[in-house]
Design goal:
By secondary structure, the protein is an alpha+beta fold. The protein is built from nine helices and 16 strands. The chain has a four-stranded antiparallel beta sheet. β6 and β7 form a beta hairpin.
Length: about 300
């Protein structure tokens, strides 16, 4: 499946055709739909969504809101940067030991409320501790902020978002951080920002100039490479590390290869990148997706009177 996703990401395979074959089957072979429907009585949904860690009484389960660890009555959400199949019993013990306890960063001098760092569905965030049904202020950490080094000053700065940049014709211009990154907004119009730090520095004039830009349609402009890794020994072309839709990958412009378990953006070397590309090259080009013949439309016949 990882190879198939590589081919889809590289544009060598049509995702809808692949999903069609995977779900409905092909050439008489049973797809997922038929296999599941024929074995509903045998399938234990809880067992299917459980991954046992060898030599440990901790298990990984996949729930509605993602993977989590469980041991008896203990539960803890799995951090988004850890894949369940890469989890070791020792690391699982560390994560489970955190429990649901919050890590307090200090007290807001203006409100007198405690400010805490927590881990949520979409990653680490800071929040103020309130009592009763009052809704607390919350803010996600920037991608450049490691949770273990966040200070009270940084947390209070994050909690000022969304920030009102100014007002034009009775409409507020806001700078905010959303699920898909930083952006500016005025009424129903919004535009993405290039860097999260711009949320604190962008002026009203700069925000209006950004909102005046044409709205991006279709694919966004390709992001610059994360790292340059020298020339490929086979093709002689430069190898670069990029961030793709399915995660980081290396490419020489001809072959794309996703990073594997154990590889990381920080540790990838030119030799390892060339090895990944060569392995992708040896698998050969992706098989072209078969196009389904569309039945010819019947011509309407006029009824004689």
């Amino acid at each position: 499946m990882e190879d198939d996703l590589d081919e889809i990401a590289a544009g060598d395979e049509a995702r809808t055709d692949w999903l069609q074959r995977f779900y409905f089957g092909e050439n008489g072979g049973a797809g997922l739909k038929q296999q599941v429907e024929g074995r509903l009585a045998e399938i234990d949904a809880r067992e299917v969504n459980t991954i046992e860690l060898p030599g440990s009484d901790i298990v990984v389960r996949v729930g509605k809101y993602g993977p989590y660890l469980e041991r008896g009555e203990e539960r803890q959400t799995l951090p988004p940067d850890i894949a369940p199949d890469e989890l070791t019993p020792a690391r699982a013990e560390e994560i489970l030991a955190l429990g649901n306890q919050e890590h307090e960063l200090g007290t807001d001098p203006e409100s007198g409320r405690a400010i805490a760092l927590r881990s949520g569905r979409y990653g680490p965030y800071v929040t103020e501790v309130v009592e009763g049904d009052e809704k607390p202020r919350t803010a996600s950490l920037f991608k450049s902020m490691p949770p273990e080094t966040v200070t009270l000053e940084e947390a209070l700065r994050l909690l000022t978002l969304p920030r009102t940049v100014g007002e034009v014709d009775g409409e507020q211009v806001l700078a905010a951080n959303g699920r898909y990154g930083p952006y500016v907004k005025r009424g129903k119009e919004s535009r993405s920002l290039d860097r999260e730090e711009e949320l604190f520095t962008i002026t009203l004039e700069e925000a209006l100039a950004k909102l005046a830009e044409p709205k991006a349609r279709g694919r966004r402009q390709a992001a610059p490479p994360l790292k340059e890794l020298g020339n490929d020994p086979v093709s002689g072309k430069p190898i670069v590390l990029k961030e793709g839709r399915f995660g980081p990958y290396v490419t020489d412009g001809e072959s794309n290869a996703s990073l594997r378990a154990g590889d990381s953006i920080e540790s990838i070397t030119p030799e390892r990148a060339a090895e990944l590309i060569q392995a992708r090259r040896e698998r050969g080009p992706a098989k072209p997706a078969k196009k389904r013949a569309t039945p010819a439309k019947k011509r309407a016949t006029r009824k004689k009177t």
